[in-house]
Amino acid sequence: MSKPKLQVQDCVGCGYCCTKTPCGAAVRLYPGARICPQLQWDEDAKRHFCGLMLISGQLGELYRKELYAGEGCCSSLSGWRQDIKERSVAEVSYDNPLSFEFQIFLKCYASEFISSDSVSLTLAKFKHELMERSYTEKNADFFVSQIVHTIGQNRHSFIKDFMG
């Protein structure tokens, strides 16, 4: 039995891939970001472009090669392909309410040699403070989960289980 062949179509610039599944370059350049800052809307062309693809010279060539420029789109079932528009932050940042500045802080925090116990205790205090300020437990847990995700994305593997 043969495997079904992946449907590849021309990229239409809908922005789906860059918002839902960031490429390796985006993950390296912007760890913890849920939306790649290189995703750019072009009002005249009525489509998104990748800022990395638009860099001139050798660096741009390297990004275009890494990101398979011109190879097409394999997200052919995405409804965004038929509804190309500049997406609101609410549409694309589906689950990260943390400000960009706070994500940068968490990236710095995650790189420090701080025990997992200290991080857990700090998050428990944070959740308690939120709930004292009338956040529901569900909302407080949601914020804590986003912080845990961001720290986890940026924590060095040799620190992750440090219990000191």
Structure description:
With 164 residues, the protein is mainly alpha-helical. The chain has two domains: 16-92, no CATH class; 100-154. 43% of the residues lie in helices and 5% in strands. The protein has seven helices and two strands; from the N terminus they run ααββααααα. The protein has helices at 16-20, 24-29, 57-66, 89-92, 100-110, 116-132, 137-154, and strands at 39-42, 47-50. The chain has a two-stranded antiparallel sheet with strand order 1-2. α5 (100-110) packs across α7 (137-154). The protein is elongated. The mean pLDDT is 79.
Overall pLDDT score: 79
Structural class: mainly alpha
The count of helical stretches stands at 7
Main pleated sheet: 2 strands, antiparallel
The separation of the N and C termini measures: 54 Å
Structural domain count: 2
What spatial form do the alpha-carbon principal axes imply? elongated
User: In order across it, which strands form the biggest sheet?
Assistant: 1-2
* Uncertain residue segments: none
Number of strands: 2
* Cα gyration radius (Å): 19 Å
Helix fraction by DSSP (H/I, runs of at least 4): 40-55%
Listing every helix as H and every strand as E from the N terminus to the C terminus, the arrangement reads: HHEEHHHHH
User: How much of the polypeptide forms β-strand, as a percent range?
Assistant: under 5%
